[in-house]
Amino acid sequence: MTRITPYRFPAEWEPQSAILLAWPHADTDWAERLAEVEETYIALVAAITRFEPAVICVADPDVEAYARARLASARVDMARVRFVEVPYDDTWLRDSGPITLVPGDDAHRGFRLLDFRFTGWGGKFEASRDDGLVEALADLGLFSNFEREVIDFALEGGGIETDGAGTLLTTWRCLSQRHPTLDRAGLSARLAGWLRQERVLWLDHGYLEGDDTDAHIDTLARFAFEDAIVYQGCDDPQDSHFAELQAMAAELAALRTRDGRPYRLFALPWARPIIDQGRRLAASYANFLIVDGAVLMPAYGDAADAQAQAVLAAAFPGREIVPVPCRPLIWQNGSLHCVTMQLPRGVLA
């Protein structure tokens, strides 16, 4: 008898309705360097709208008017831009936005929006408005044919990676920090149940200086189809990350696909250290965003940018690789993937 699977957690490379993001403004943590980060957001929205719509959260009508004027003056395709007014603490929508499950074998079902608790990465920052973002967007009528499932469990979208076929990849450092009373078996069971996964793969190694997420997987290793993983490498033995990222690479090499084969691995190059006021910033090329027909790649103005573009082109054949200047983003410890959340095709009203 065929097993009916009501829902499925899709891979990022599957068809999308839009990319969700939030515009930075003076009441967010970007205030000190707002002009710089606005340029990144303009470039990001311009890149997204070449391939699909962008849905931009704005805090109030003034922020919307300003963002609209800036984007229009940059010749962004405004027919592909939609604004929604909603309160938010900051702009890291990968972690506060909805994790969307799509209908599985039963096509008559709608979408399921998983609304996990967002705690500001373990209570590091105020996050009450961000924690209410999914509910607020749903109440505004942004989504269609859906149910929202509230889950009293701290989980960020940047902390999980799926191949869309039942395998989840995550890091023990992050999940154990959020839930220190749970062992690996307990965490695996919960993640597999809520996210409809058949297995959970754990990485014990890998971190980036300047990262305050406790080693989110989307800064370290990402699926590129069911049998391939793109990961952040480090080839400088003198660098403080060398031992950890080499150990992570060995862990990835030991993983197996569901049919028992080694994964095809694509190592991303290592950018030279970016230091800001004595603090090293987390410049990861693994924080790329997949959109319909393309991969948007974080660029840091480093000589390694071109090599990273070539690696992603090999990992994602047939997709255009589009660099987006992200150096201003890493001042706040995240990059391109961290400020965006894809919405699967059909979920947008």
Automatic annotation (TrEMBL):
Domain of life: Bacteria
Any GO molecular function: agmatine deiminase activity
GO biological process entries: putrescine biosynthetic process
Record keywords: Hydrolase
The protein's name: Agmatine deiminase
Record organism: Vulcaniibacterium thermophilum
